[in-house]
Amino acid sequence: MQGVKGNLLFSLCLALIVGLSCHAQEDEVSFEMKLSKERLGINERLRVDFTMNKDGDNFNPPSFEGFKVVMGPSQSISSSWVNGKRSFSKTYSYILVPTSRGKFTIKQATIEIAGETYKTLPKTVEITAAVDKPNSEKTVDDVADENLHLVAEVSKGNPYLNEAVTVIYKLYVSPNISVTNYRPLDNPTYNNFWSQDIPVTKHTAQNGTFQGKPYRYVILKRVVLYPQKPGKLEIEPLSLEIFVDVPTNRRDFFGGRIYTQTTKTVSAGRRTINVKPLPEAGKPANFGGAVGDFEFSVTASKKQLNAAESLQAIVEVSGKGNLKLFQLPEPELPSALEVYEPEYEEKVTTYTSGMEGKVSNNYTIVPSFRGKYPIPSISFSYFNPKTGKYVTLDSEEINIEVLDGPVGSSSDNALVGSPNKQLVIPTGKQFHFIKIKPSLTNIGTDYFFGSKTFYILLFAPLLLIPIAVFSFKKREAIASDIEGNKIKKANKLAKKYLSTSKRELGNKEAFYVALEKGLHNYLKAKLKIETSEFSKEKITKILSDKNVGASDVDGFIDLLKSCEMARYSPFSDVQMQNDYEKASEVISNLDKQL
After folding, report:
1. Which N-terminal stretch is annotated as signal sequence (predicted)?
2. How many CA atoms does the CB half-sphere of 556 hold within 13 Å?
3. Residue range(s) defining the domain that contains residue 352
């Protein structure tokens, strides 16, 4: 019995010792350096891995004397549970190429794990002469770098000011790898350019070549730029994070190649274009910044009408070019015609070659008197970048005839231009006969003097005197309210320049294009500056020099930034309404200060 107890006690002690030993092995921290090989040719690569079985911080690699780091550090982590036991491994990897022959020592690396510092053992590597078949040890990241390229293709490297430049971003992918997804990291802001994105609705892979090798490519982004100042302008790079599947040398149970996924950051790189200024030689006096190939017309909805009726006079420019970036010429109309603020209409589509369509101002005209009124011919000038010359187009003169209505003075109608001519208006029959037997009736014995009607008409003017005095004082008070009149005038001006954007509320792209154009047109009209000066920095400086308040300057610049951001980000109807109200307030404030 005692022998059995002794054996049992010995077995329990042995199990306890083994368990403690295993637990100690589980808790033991390992941190070591592994080399792909300890002897290699000078034309080969060396892979160095620093592996640990516990997660650590403050990793400090050695200096790698005698080698050049071509890749790294790349980090990989693996963690798993097998039969209730956790397995963890974390590795920092480097790819090195030797710089000379000889023996070199890769010194210690350090890391902190659970508050303690651990070091690897140094290792020696011998570098020999070049070998016939070098061992080019490539990581997954190496393969992804060599087979993945983001390129920005620019249509023109030397355009004129306000000439369309198309930038197409293509992602070239080698058949050796496959891309699963991507996300933008940094979108270019295109400073000193007016920009318009052309949406890419479908990403279709196409066959092509890159550096003479067969590749597949996908168009990720297209944008049309109109440079707003001459000189060398930089196009900022587009950066993307790409998720890539890279094949390895391992195969699965069925013989299929095993793929490893990695992420790579690619950039299209900065591109510089040299923008040529528009030539001064031959520039027309009425040139307003139009660049392209256009047609110009002035038309009237009717040429004969009666007084107090209305007609529409349309000033229209159509064709290809910077249609959204210049102002239309204004017609000179006789003073006898009442002319309302024009309604601006824009039907423009942006293609990869630039803008195409038409823009117009629709004037409502109401004549007050009979007569003939000419709408004189007006001119429109533009620069054609294909021919390198300016072109001036003249509209046809339009004659408006008002058939029926009151007769104006000689200064009010079209015959005024000839002082010797006068308009003779017949008033029915020209000869009247005196009646010998008139039809007269007795009005009775009642007299007008002393009647009720007599006294009412006598004292009515006295009653009107207080009303006239009150009206005069009211008008005088309104006229003396300078601040109030300024506010009314500023609000009317804001509505004028923002009328198009208000009609486009709910349509994000059209709204922000119209809002940006309205803001620009306001500054053009108010400060008499050219389109080429429209950069945010220039606007800030000009407004500051005009003693505009800093908050109003910041508000104006923030609106321009919102117009730019709207091309890349979703904007709600509420945000559009807020931006419209903010724009109206900013223009009102600026107008009061300017």
Report:
1. 1-24
2. 29
3. 292-417
Upstream peptide bond of 237 is cis (omega within 30 degrees of 0): no
Which CATH number covers residue 405?
Answer: 2.60.40
Element at 527 (helix H, strand E): helix 508-527
DSSP per-residue codes, 65-119: TTEEEEEEEEEEEEEEEETTEEEEEEEEEEEEEESSSEEEEE---EEEETTEEEE
Say whether both 108 and 183 belong to one domain: no
Please give the pLDDT value at position 83: 65
CB 237 within 8 A of CB 272: no
Please give the tally of structural domains in the chain.
4
Whether residues 387 and 500 fall in one domain: no
- C-alpha dihedral over 487, 489, 493, 498, to 10 degrees? 50
Residue 1: inside a domain, yes or no?
A: no
E-strand stretches of 268-408: 271-275, 292-300, 304-305, 311-321, 337-339, 343-351, 354-367, 371-375, 379-384, 389-394, 398-402
**Residue 574 neighbours by CB under 8 Å, 6+ apart:** none
Domain boundary among 386, 417, 448: 417
Q: What is the pLDDT of residue 415?
A: 39
Q: Let me know whether 127 and 152 are in one domain.
A: no
pLDDT at 432 over 50: no
Q: What is the DSSP letter of 279?
A: P
Q: Please, how many CA atoms are within 13 Å of residue 381, restricted to the half-sphere of its CB?
A: 10
Q: How far is CA 22 from CA 25, 51, 456, in A?
A: 5, 21, 124
Beta-strand runs (E) in 395-549: 398-402
CA dihedral 461, 465, 468, 473 (to 10 degrees): 170
Helices (H), 329-449: none
Judgement on whether residues 383 and 269 belong to the same structural domain of the protein: no
Report how far residue 567's alpha carbon sits from residue 583's, in angstroms, rounded to the nearest whole number. Answer: 18
520-546 pLDDT tens trace = 777 777 776 654 455 677 788 888 888
Instruction: Count the alpha carbons within 13 Å of 221 in the hemisphere toward its beta carbon.
Output: 25
Q: Are 164 and 192 in contact (CB under 8 A)?
A: no
- Tell me: do 268 and 355 sit in the same domain: no
Same structural domain for residues 304 and 408? yes
Largest Cα span, the chain: 171
pLDDT tens sequence across 119-171: 999 999 998 887 766 655 566 777 887 888 999 999 999 999 999 999 999 99
Strands 271-275, 231-235: pairing is antiparallel
Place of tokens 């020592």: 105
Q: Indicate the length of the chain as a whole number.
A: 594
Over the Cα atoms of the chain, what is R_g?
Answer: 42
Contact 357/314 with Cβ under 8 angstroms? Answer: no
- The whole-angstrom separation of Cα 70 and Cα 382 is 54
pTM here is 0.50
Residues with Cβ < 8 Å from 268, sequence gap 6 or more?
Answer: 150, 151, 152, 169, 237, 238, 239
State the pLDDT at residue 421: 36
